[in-house]
Design a protein that fits this description.
With 335 residues, this protein is α/β, with parallel strands linked by helices. 38% of the residues lie in helices and 16% in strands.
Length: 335
Amino acid sequence: MTVRDIAAQTGVSIATVSRVLNGHANVAPETRELVKQAAERLRIQGLGVRPLGKDSQGAVYLRCPYLLTDYFGLIVTSVAETLALHGWAVNLDAGEASQRATVLPALPSRPGTAGAIVILPPEPGEQLTALRASGFPFVVVDPRTPVPPDIAAVSAAHFAGSRSITAHLAGLGHRRIGVIAGPHNWLAGQARLAGHASALAEAGTLHPSELTRSGEPTAEFGYQAAAELLDRPDPRDRPTALACFNDKTAVGALAAAAARGLRVPADLSVTGFDDIDLAQATSPLLTTVRQPLAEMGRMAVSLLIRLLEGHQVEARHVELATDLVVRASTGPALK
């Protein structure tokens, strides 16, 4: 008999059974008793049942329902490499087609799965809450929506990062700053808009809503949004700088500026976010905010391993610092 048999008998997660068999304290008394009674019924006490871990049949389910380029590829690579260092196997679920699959509710009963790391999960928050209530150990990387306090999550400091880049633009004299934002219902998008508004308020101005465009963070959207802002009928209403949701939208904005004969940064400043390799391949090189993408992956693995081993995790929401990287795409505002 295995821990999976006990889990099937009791309806609790495999990881919870493992914690009971290992004598960890972080298990409710009634759950502990339920598992012990099931073990006795199955006559496996004393037969050396091994806890599910890196030396047995368990693996970590890694869900990233997006194309593994740039941003997502860096996080996935870091997670996989870090898990390998700790001796864990990885079951990777990636690609945009995976967004249409219903995955989370079945994870606790998925064969050979000890825990999971989910990156920017598109699932509704109710599914994450239900998964946590099942006792299944998992960590969210860059949550799309706010997560409850008892769910482990890792993200970058979106508010502080956005605030730093807008403060940089304000210091250069920019006040009419166009914002090419991400989807309005993304947690990162909301935090970055708040950081932008905070920096402008400190500079003594308010951000006009007509200078914001929200959409999917692609180069195509960046071009379209920048074109709308730069083509406003009254030249006095046009932005002198564009703060973009990520480096890809910034590339689209640079193309829109070039198509209108605008010089960057002499006529228009443009900034990105993430600092992927693309930011150092633009002309001019892109001022951006560096997210610690690899460290986000490593931190997620660290949290998950602690959960798998039954340790008490007090700091479940970890926010990693970002860095402003000033390059050649920003300059003083035109007088």
